[in-house]
Amino acid sequence: MTDLADRRLLLVHAHPDDESINNGATMATYAAQGTHVALVTCTLGEEGEVIPPALAHLAADREDGLGPHRAVELDAAMRELGVTDHRFLGGPGRFRDSGMMGVEQNHRAGAFWSADVDEAAALLVEVIRELRPQVLVTYDPDGGYGHPDHIQAHRVATRAAELAADPAFRTDLGAPHEIAKIYWNRVPRSVGERLFTRLREDAGVPWTAAELADVPGVVDDDRITTEIDGRPYAARKAAAMRAHATQIAVREPWFALSNDLAQPLFDIEYYELVRGRSGAAPGARESDLFAGLPEHAATAERPQDDRGTVTT
Ligand SMILES: [Zn+2]
Fold first, then answer.
1. Which residue from 60, 116, 145, 164 has the fewest beta carbons nearer than 10 Å?
2. How many whole angstroms from 153 Cα to the centroid of ligand 1?
3. Which residues, 6 or more positions from 199, have their beta carbon under 8 angstroms from its beta carbon?
4. pTM for the whole thing?
5. What does pLDDT average to over the chain?
6. Per-residue pLDDT tens digits for 27-66
């Protein structure tokens, strides 16, 4: 066995900042527990808009220096969350930010949106077979809100999970590994509505309120299978988001992107289990992404006696 922690969580995201916004509290929670938390970011986010005027020169239509700058922001954010394993898919700059849907950057050479899904997935298969995560977190098929890089991240993560488990696929990339549980990032509609009501009533917010429809991954409550109460790490999440200073302005418990529209900063984060069995009682939500899984490999392999009970 390797010296990897018994619990291993892999998150796949499109751009630096997506991980902190969506999963910052979850990542900090698991990192603090000693879980191996690994982040794979698919692009450097080169096409992002820049909030601080002093850094506006980095934008893609000026010096085009935003990618390396955002890699440094990501480093700082991961330090805030206590996450030490973060990588760019295929290495930094292998895939470029594709910009919003419909722009010409979608089809430029190297754009993540124009990448071959199986080729990009093979790069992630190598990571999956190395780390052997029990849990994968990524976006839904719409990427949460239709951004091409988010849709592509979903496709690549989903395909990689499938190929990593296939014993016939690329034996040079390591032994096959099946990820036990896959989750999509979600926001329950009732929680979103409640927080947006509070946001609109807060006279101290320096921005106009966004609409709930602007938030990625909002679904009816009954689709939520899992909630991670990251409130003890809310300040860590806020600090990680602040580290992405070109992209996010934070005024707890709210934040705004470059559109200057305020959104809630979620310190309880929500998920939909789309593969694997829920570890919660019927009708209840999981409070742990690893719920229902054996505590570690040794437990899973412990022999059973002839009555089917686990011998200890
Ligand atoms: Zn993004």
1. 116
2. 10
3. 205, 209, 254, 262, 263, 264
4. 0.93
5. 93
6. 999 999 999 999 999 999 999 999 999 999 999 999 999 9
